[in-house]
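Input record (Table S2, row 261):
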Amino acid sequence: MNAIKLPSSLRAELRGPVAILRLHRAEKRNALNDTLVQGMVAFFDALPAEIRAVVLAGDGDHFSAGLDLTELEERDVFGGVAHSSSWHRAFERIEFGKVPVVAVLHGAVVGGGLELAAAVHIRVAERSAYYALPEGSRGIFVGGGGSVRLPPLLGVARMMDMMLTGRTLNAEEGQAIGLSQYLVDDGAGLAKAIELAERIAGNAPFTNFAVTHMLPRIARSDPAAGFATEALTAAIAQGEEEAKKRLKAFLEKRGPKVVRG
Ligand code: 1HE
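Output record (1HE complex):
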């Protein structure tokens, strides 16, 4: 990680098997410009093998104000297509990257910031978090994969409402619909995300791969292909040395039991 050069708008820190990546542009409310987005690509590409989970957070009072609107001024139509595609490629690195990613959401999680949040695997929201898609009021459209990743989280009807009327969801509403999986007090998000990331880092790596790469694809496929792919994935997982070790440990009363939630 030390070897890779991140832009000044990003900060990375390693904590054992967990890497923490922070959007470090609080003076611009962590607005996402090309440099920052490409910096995220460099970070996710360069993750060393010993890193087993990533926490993504934003510095300052907001997770992210979305697309850096100053960049829109200079772009023509085809430039817009290229830009949106570049975000798609970047966020793919997160959604289908090397390791699971846990995001801490606080303050504004809007526009491209919400699209970024949709690309991670676990979302921990602080009570200050709020969600909006102000693209409608800016005369633009989502371009960071939002029309693909947000409907499964929000529903098409709610997303339409947010885009057409500027409706904002608060943290409680986001939690109630499953947009965030955890809701914690202000200031408690990072610790919760690190705790979850450490737990994830302790899983068998193939299981983490199967959950992040195979599960969403199986869920989107037709049932016949889904069952066949699931059977193969399950067989590969149980054939792994790590799975055999963990099963043996449980059968010899050394493995952890499931605890009541
Ligand atoms: C920005 C941006 C930005 C702030 N691009 N510079 N996103 C939006 O439409 C959201 C626009 N931002 C806001 O509504 C507000 O800034 C916030 C609610 C997020 C925060 O408010 P506040 O009062 O804390 O901050 P501020 O005073 O509005 O902004 C502080 C500075 O950040 C200011 O710059 P300064 O030089 O005057 O200090 C702002 O101009 C700057 N700033 N947000 C550029 N977004 C791939 S398609 C994705 C499409 C989208 O993401 S559309 C949604 C865009």
